[in-house]
Amino acid sequence: MTRSKIAISLPKDQLANIHREVRAGRADSVSGYISSVLAESERRESLRTLLRDLVEQFGEPAAEDIEWAERALPSRRG
Fold first, then answer.
1. For residue 5, which of 26, 23, 30 has the smallest C-alpha distance?
2. ∠ Cα 15 17 18 (to 5°)
3. Which DSSP category does 74 fall into?
4. 18 and 34 in contact (C-beta within 8 Å)?
5. Assessment of whether the complete model's pTM goes beyond 0.85
6. Distance between CA atoms of residues 75 and 5, nearest Å
7. Residues 42-63 pLDDT 10s
8. Contact of 30 with 22, CB cutoff 8 Å
C-alpha cells in the first residue's frame, strides 16, 4: 500500500491518549494508531451499508428474530 504523509492537528488530550496507547504497545506508532482507527471506521460504515441494503431487500427483522439473536449471540456491551 502506498502511503502519503500528512499533517493533522489534534486536541492535546487526544494526542496524549494516542501516545499512551503507543507506549503500552497497543499501537506501533501515532500513524499506526490513527490508521487503525480510520480502518475500523471504514469497516463499520461498510457494515452499516450492508445492513441498510439487507433491510431494503428483505425488510426489517421480525421481533422474534431479534429476540432469538439476543439470546443466541454473546453480549458485546460493557
1. 30
2. 65
3. P
4. yes
5. no
6. 39
7. 999 999 999 999 999 999 999 9
8. yes
Q: In 3-state terms, the chain is what percent helix, strand and coil (to 5)? A: 65, 0, 35
Q: Which three cell numbers stand for residue 44?
A: 463499520
Packing angle, helices 12-23 and 30-58, rounded to 10: 100
Quote the CA–CA distance of 14 and 69 in Å, as a whole number: 36
pLDDT digits (tens, 9 = 90+) for 1-50: 799 999 999 999 999 999 999 999 999 999 999 999 999 999 999 999 99
Whole-angstrom Cα distance, residue 18 to residue 29? 9
As given in the structure block, the three cell numbers for residue 49 are 451499508
Q: What is the DSSP letter of 25?
A: T
Three-state SS across 33-50? HHHHHHHHHHHHHHHHHH
